[in-house]
Amino acid sequence: MSWEIVMGLEVHAELLTKTKIFCGCRASFGGEPNTHVCPVCSGMPGALPKLNRAVVDCALRLGLALGCDITRHCKFDRKNYFYPDLPKAYQVSQLYAPICRNGKLGDIRLYQIHMEEDAGKLLHTAHGTRMDFNRCGVPLLEIVTQPDFRSTEQVLAYLEQLRETLVYLDICDGKMQEGSLRCDVNLSVRRPGEDFGTRTETKNLNSFKAIGRAIAYEAQRQIALLESGQTVTQETRRWDDNKEQSYSMRSKENAQDYRYFPEPDLLPMHIDEAWLARVQASLPELAAAKRARLAQEFGLSEYGAKLLTEHKELAGLFEDIARQSGQPKEAANLIIGEIMRLMNSTNTLPEDVRLDAGKAALLIALVVDSSISRAAFKQTVGAMFTHGVDPQAYIDENGLRMVNDNSAVEQAVAKALAENPNAVADYNAGLEKAFGFLMGQVMRQLGRAGNPEVVRKVLVAQLTIAEKPA
Ligand code: ADP
Ligand code: ZN
Ligand code: MG
Questions:
Q1: Residue 450 C-alpha from the chain's centroid
Q2: What's the rounded Cα separation, in Å, for the pair 85 and 82?
Q3: Ligand 1, closest atom to CA 252?
Q4: Going from the N-terminus, what domains does the chain have, and what CATH number goes with each?
Q5: What confidence score (pLDDT) does residue 217 get?
Q6: Which residue of 153, 186, 188, 412 has the fewest C-beta atoms within 10 A of its own C-beta?
Q7: Is the CB of residue 215 below 6 angstroms from any atom belonging to ligand 1?
Q8: pLDDT at residue 453 in the model
Q9: How far is 342 from 5, CA to CA, in rounded Å?
């Protein structure tokens, strides 16, 4: 009989607020160790926290976007545990009244979303363990699902959709490699139709690949235990991506182990109608809606619309160019074909792409009316992408405007025919390759300014005249 895998996810998203959740220290990633710290976030006795409203805004943005119930009177709680990355020896989190409950992302039901502070980082060196408190107090949203996942594909699709939503909402940069998005996988196995089995939680998953491997590993491990008559122990496991296996970190702690109690240094907050309405009105169009609208409005394929909306910056650029040029197909090809290729080869992030939509639209007009060739178009896009050149000026300086006037082309064709009698003879004898060769000879004379369409027509015409019976 087969086994069914049951999973629920706990995702931590680091928020893009300028400052930390309870103090004015910078919340940005990195920095010299212990330079973004103050008495509040380093846990000095007597220092008092002050809630950053921007964190609540982020939580409300996500909660409203995912259709959650918002807890109007919401509170913070202390989760007590001792570990060197947590100088206060407790984490301010939410247990009894989390800000969001329920809601859905795709088919997956959310259990809750709550606000909490991040812990610091431990650096294990040859000389011992060092502590960096820059990350202490960086605001996090923890997004907890119901145990609704049954396959790795479902997990990865959800994470991709969640990442996209967070990025579109401008509340998290979604970078898994920098730890801005971290995922813990709760997993159990059961025979179909039976009750849920005992679960484990696997942590330290830093990429989609690691998540896929960790799920396969843990499912196999649990199935092997159960099939040999043993039981699964409820525990927290740590994934080691180099060894491609996980090991037990600690037996599963429960709420009592953490001695949760209401945070006495922070007042409960009241989220009123006006606050909610303000956040609701500021919500941007999300990826799925944008995808559907662009596909419909500009006649894009589903695949094209998906590629274009993977990064909201590129989606915006596409829409601007498509509108200004009136050529959505060309605009889509420009972004998907040229810009994405250039981004790959130069390691450029979507937010760093500087391409003027108006100038790109103008360039499209030039290739569409055959003022420049496709090759010249590509070359100019490259120069715009890397050096920000003005397309008109660049085309003129580099002589890229196509020679569309027939007399220049006719001269070049006549010259090529006169210089290559053997190729002409081959062509007349039915050798197709000879035509390509002659095309090449003419294009070489004209350079990038040659319009292949015009050259082809003139060449056919002159070859037909030249073809006299011997
Ligand atoms: P805890 O408070 O002990 O962390 P939660 O009830 O918050 O437990 O659940 C944590 C996560 O584990 C949630 O994402 C939930 O969907 C998932 N989960 C709960 N039970 C199971 C199970 N039997 N198998 C797989 N996942 C589960
Ligand atoms: Zn601080
Ligand atoms: Mg939990």
A1: 40
A2: 9
A3: 3
A4: 4-278 (no CATH), 285-397 (no CATH), 406-467 (1.10.10.410)
A5: 97
A6: 153
A7: no
A8: 83
A9: 41
Q: Measured between alpha carbons, how far is 212 from 216 in angstroms, rounded to an integer?
A: 6
- Provide the 8-state DSSP code for 301: -
CA distances in angstroms from 148 to 155, 194, 195, listed in the order given: 9, 15, 13
Q: Which two tokens stand for residue 156?
A: 């990865």
pLDDT (0 to 100) of residue 470: 45
Q: Is the CB of 98 under 6 A from ligand 1?
A: no
Residues whose CB falls within 8 Å of the CB of residue 107, separated by 6 or more in sequence, listed in order: 148
Alpha-carbon span 348 to 356, nearest angstrom: 16
State the number of CA atoms in the 13 A half-sphere of 243 facing the CB. Answer: 6
What count of other Cβ atoms lies within 10 Å of the Cβ of residue 126?
4
What is the C-alpha separation between 165 and 62, in angstroms, rounded? 8
Helix (H/G/I), strand (E/B), else coil: 89: coil
Q: Is the CB of 315 under 6 A from ligand 1?
A: no
Please check the confidence at residue 469 and state whether its pLDDT lies above 60: no
Q: Are 28 and 35 in contact (CB under 8 A)?
A: no
Q: Is 8 in the pocket of ligand 1 (CB under 6 A)?
A: yes
The closest of 245, 38, 8 to 145, measured between CA atoms, is 8
Residue 178 is predicted with a pLDDT of 87
- Given a contact cutoff of 8 angstroms between Cβ atoms, the answer to whether 59 and 99 are in contact is yes
Q: Is the pLDDT of residue 29 over 60?
A: yes
Burial of 451 (0-12, 13-18, 19+ CB in 10 A): buried
The one-letter code for the residue type at 352 is D
Which atom of ligand 1 is the closest one to the Cα of 198?
23
Residue whose CB lies within 8 A of the most ligand 1 atoms, among 188, 199, 254, for a mutation test: 199
Q: Does the beta carbon of 234 sit less than 6 angstroms from any atom of ligand 1?
A: no
- DSSP strand E in 315-385: where? none
Q: How far is the CA of 35 from the centre of ligand 2 (A)?
A: 10
